Structures are given as C-alpha cells and as structure tokens.
Amino acid sequence: MSEIVDSFVAPPCHDPIEILYQDEHLLLINKPGGLLSLSGKNPLNLDSVHHRLVKSFPGCTLVHRLDFGTSGLMVIARNKAINAALCQQFSQRSVRKIYSALLCGHLADDDGVIEAAIAKDPARFPRMTICDRHGKPARSHYQVVERVDYAQQDGSTVPVTRVVLTPETGRTHQLRIHCQLRGHPILGCDLYGGLLLPGSEKTPRLMLHASELHFVHPVSGEAIHARHATPF
C-alpha cells in the first residue's frame, strides 16, 4: 500500500483564541474557524491551538480536537493528570457536545437520528467514508431550528436549514459525513459536498460551530455547562 501523503497547507489564521475560563487545572476556549487543533507534520502547518497555548500555558495538552474549519468550544488540560481524567469522561461518553450548523437545502423532517459506521478512506485522504464492514459505529441526532434563505457576503442567497447537532459518538468528520448522508451537507464543507449547492461556493467557512460543552470538572466535581454563541 502506498504511503498516504498529506499535502494540505493551512492558510494563515489571524483570529485569536478566546480564553473563556481558566484555572490551575484547565482552560475553556473558543477556537476560531480555520485554525488547526494540533500542529501538522508539515512544518508549514505549525500554527495550531496547541502551538499557541503552550507558549502561555506550558504543559497544556489537548483532550479532544475540532476540525480545522470548525469553530467553538474546546477544553484544554493543563497537566497530564487532568488530561487523563478528562479523556476518561470523553471515552465513557459522559461529555455532552452540541453543535450549531447550517445545512444545504431545507430538511423535510424537524428532527431525526443518523446512524452509520465511519471508516478511513485511504484512497481519498483525508476523507472518511460510510462503511458497515470496516467502520466504527457512529450516531448523530439533529434538530431543526429554522429553514431560511441565507444571505452571502455578495448579497446572493442560498436555502439552508439551521440545525442543532448532537453526536453520541466522536468519530472523525462524523457530523460532516452524516449530514452528507442525510442529503444535506454542511454549508461550506469542502470534503463532503457543502460547496455544490448553487451559490454555496461563495461561503467563507465551514458552517459548523461547537456551541455547547457539558462535562464535570475533574478536581472540583462541579458540573460545567459551557455555551458559546454561534458566529453565523
């Protein structure tokens, strides 16, 4: 099998990371869209959430990641013990993650569940694929907020459905590929059909935002209910 080559080079991200909360154990941040969570192997992809934060918070580590184009809430551990405790919450699926998104077109249903196993697609890296045989189980819930004509920066409009997405599992690209499977890709998604709707090619970003993150503080035991307004 030929070696997978990642030729992606991230364009510069000038937006700052917003620190929403910090203590001696962890950070809660708002990641801007267009910033890698972790620096890539390509030296041109050095800029990332971790690369920026470790300068001010030595020893900090990522507990989870958001896709390059996704904005929103992330929790960052400030030491290895906190990382282990938070990772356990994620692996036990006791962390609740809620996303806001704009989907291409108008969904017929007001809510539903998408259940389809996801696997790597080596022939089309970095894409993932739906595969019952080799994939890992994945389940996502969606709830329609509104159906509107979304105004682009040039004044043109595209029909979209604003939804709340709640993943039960945390597979790579899960929400993006599940929405494509449902027939309504996330607007602006370059990998899974979100730039194919007429007019959507002008969309400036992936319209996916991690708007809520619910977990338990690993030291105080306090229930943390973090929310951040959707920027689109």
UniProtKB/TrEMBL annotation:
Residues 25-180 form the Pseudouridine synthase RsuA/RluA-like domain. GO terms for biological process: enzyme-directed rRNA pseudouridine synthesis. InterPro entries: PsdUridine_synth_cat_dom_sf, PsdUridine_synth_RluA-like_CS, PsdUridine_synth_RsuA/RluA, RluA_PseudoU_synthase. CDD domains: PseudoU_synth_RluA_like. Keywords: Isomerase. GO terms for molecular function: 23S rRNA pseudouridine(746) synthase activity; RNA binding; tRNA pseudouridine(32) synthase activity. Its EC number is 5.4.99.28, 5.4.99.29, 5.4.99.-. This is Ribosomal large subunit pseudouridine synthase A. It comes from Pantoea brenneri. The gene is rluA.
